[in-house]
Amino acid sequence: MTASRSTTTRTGVSTRPGRQDRLDHLVYEIRAAVHRGLPPDRTAGLVGDRLAPHLGAANLLTDRQCEGDADRYRQHVLHAEEDGGFSIVSLVWLPGRRTSIHDHVSWCVTGVHQGREHERRYELIPGDPAGRLVATRDVVNEQGQVCGFAPPGDIHRAPEDEG
After folding, report:
1. Could you tell me which of 97, 87, 90, 89 has the C-alpha nearest to residue 118?
2. Which pLDDT band holds residue 158 (cuts at 50, 70, 90)?
3. What's the rounded Cα separation, in Å, for the pair 6 and 46?
4. For the purposes of burial, counting CB atoms within 10 Å of the CB of 58, is it exposed (0-12), middle (13-18) or buried (19 or more)?
């Protein structure tokens, strides 16, 4: 699994019949987009287009894949491509949880399956020998929205839910 090339759904709903068919279809669509061999930003855009119609579907995630953790955010691997080309992961945030500030070494797509995600984005101050970051904006991603990232310039974190 290469977590840096990932498609992420954010938490969920109960299992419904046809879950495996939906996931298989999503994997097929993402695989086709990845195998086009486009630049990372264009790949992220195509993968986001494929992910968006599945967000919020009652038959995308199992109950287990929607379970959170009281102490931190939780990952559930839904699919890991054998060649390492991409993985699909359900990330679950409970209220008050957050990621650390991070960037990605490859393209990444996130999509909100249920609820909303508050995200803070950062930029590295050019020429600063201390390598300081400055917060540039806060973004609220609503259910059904996707975001594609491609380095450089994808420094962010999912801060505590503010609402």
Report:
1. 97
2. confident
3. 13
4. middle
